[in-house]
Amino acid sequence: MTTTPRRTPTLEDLAARAGVSRATASRVLRGQTNVSDEAREAVLAAAEELSYTPNQAARSLVTGRSNSLAFCVDESQERMFSDPFFFGMLRGAQGVVAGAGQQLVFTVTSREEEHRRFLAYAAAGHVDGVLLLSLHGRDRLPQELEAIGVPTVLSGRPLTGASLYYVDADNVGGGRLATEHLRRAGRRVVAHVAGPLDMCAGQDRLAGYREALGEDFEPELVESADWTVAGGEAATAELLRRRPDLDAVFAGSDLEALGVIRALEHAGRRVGTGADEVAVVGFDDVQAADQQRVPLTTVRQPIADLGATMTSRLLERLAGEDPPRSTVLPVELVVRRTA
């Protein structure tokens, strides 16, 4: 005995079941607002009854949209897969993308040839918009994407001065919070292991540190690193060579802070809040910060919310809305045992 395969319901079937026109059913499925509440409820109920799933391939042919967004990280694969910051951002972005019924395409573009390939991929219509993370220097990739008609939202303030859409944490405020906390604790020689100074986060956290110190700022107490544990360790070794009297360190990231602690311990210095210990503050509040032998005091930025907000801004642009070009989310100090 053979059975006839069940026919996949069409948009016409859905409209007939809901008692509305094909055009009205289509508007409901696209999330448009020019539909009555009664019609919307009828269409959604009918879609559930029929187990209706829109034909994305057909929709793409009609709308010229791929229904895909790119999550593009301008870093090496090694850095991308070793830094929990990016996974937090990805988690936040994916939640919004999935809720919108779209797909997220992940790519890493750290070299010029990778930039060119990604531009060609985007220009061919494979993605409708781009979430762009971790730009260095005056990289013009976002301007090139916008020039070919691919809306883009950046993670972090652009250094080019261009009028681009971006979402950022209050890095200046965070740097100030960390440094003021150390000064209030009586620390007199506060060093800073900065992030890369060709990135907005590195520059802005350093700016907050300088603001908090005012006239007490000393350039020799700043050493730049690359957001990594190894970078933080090497920078701290150099700072100790220059200023063995330092009694506090504000690190530009939690991974750098772990390297700071490693270097201090290697030099025979203890980390903590005691008068004979070196206080350390990080930035990010990744999961590892609270799992150390001495839990790390840090500045928490809302990593998942940053990814979600970037994605919402991009979807707003794709819907023809005009969201704010800059969105800055607040940070907070999380006091644990290193400072």
TrEMBL record:
<protein>
    <submittedName>
        <fullName>LacI family transcriptional regulator</fullName>
    </submittedName>
</protein>
<dbReference type="InterPro" id="IPR001387">
    <property type="entry name" value="Cro/C1-type_HTH"/>
</dbReference>
<feature type="domain" description="HTH cro/C1-type">
    <location>
        <begin position="10"/>
        <end position="36"/>
    </location>
</feature>
<feature type="domain" description="HTH lacI-type">
    <location>
        <begin position="9"/>
        <end position="63"/>
    </location>
</feature>
<dbReference type="InterPro" id="IPR028082">
    <property type="entry name" value="Peripla_BP_I"/>
</dbReference>
<keyword id="KW-0238">DNA-binding</keyword>
<dbReference type="GO" id="GO:0003700">
    <property type="term" value="F:DNA-binding transcription factor activity"/>
</dbReference>
<dbReference type="Pfam" id="PF13377">
    <property type="entry name" value="Peripla_BP_3"/>
</dbReference>
<dbReference type="Pfam" id="PF00356">
    <property type="entry name" value="LacI"/>
</dbReference>
<dbReference type="InterPro" id="IPR000843">
    <property type="entry name" value="HTH_LacI"/>
</dbReference>
<dbReference type="InterPro" id="IPR046335">
    <property type="entry name" value="LacI/GalR-like_sensor"/>
</dbReference>
<keyword id="KW-0805">Transcription regulation</keyword>
<dbReference type="GO" id="GO:0000976">
    <property type="term" value="F:transcription cis-regulatory region binding"/>
</dbReference>
<dbReference type="InterPro" id="IPR010982">
    <property type="entry name" value="Lambda_DNA-bd_dom_sf"/>
</dbReference>
<keyword id="KW-0804">Transcription</keyword>
